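Let us practice reading a record.
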Amino acid sequence: MMSTNLIGLDKQGAGALAEQLNGLLANYQVLYMNVRGFHWNVQGANFFELHAKFEEIYDQLLIKVDELAERILTLGQQPLHGFSDYLSRAQLDEAKNVHDGHVAVENILGAYQLLLGQQRKILAAAAELGDEGTVSLLSDYISQQEKESWMLAAYQGRRA
C-alpha cells in the first residue's frame, strides 16, 4: 500500500521531487545574488535602464525563491536554507564584479537556459506524480522566463 503525504501524494515520490526542487532553489538563490550584484555594479551608457531592469528581475527571483521553499514544505520536506548548501548544489556559478551590462545580460540569459531545462524536467516528474501544484508553479515560471529570454536577447541585438 502506498503511503501518502498531507496533500495526497506518494511520500517517496514527493521526497524525490522535493530533492529536485531543492536543486532548483539553489540555482535560484545563486542567480538572485548574481542579479543583485549586477544591479549594484552595472556601469556605462545603459546604467539607468539596466539598473531598473535588474531590480525588476531580482524582485521576481526573490518571490520564486519563497514559492519554491514553500512548495518543498508543502510536499512534506525541508528546503535548503544555508548559502553553503546552495553553492554546493547549484549548477550556476557566482558572477562577481560584473560591471558591463551586456555581460550581465548574457549571464542572465545563460542562467535562464539552464533553469528552463531544469524546470521542464521537474515539471515532467511532477506530472508523473500527479502533483498539479508543482506543475502549475513551474509552468508559470517557464512561460515568464521564455518571454524574458526573448526580450533580453532582443536587447542584446539577437534573436531568442
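A brief commentary: The longest helix spans residues 11-41.
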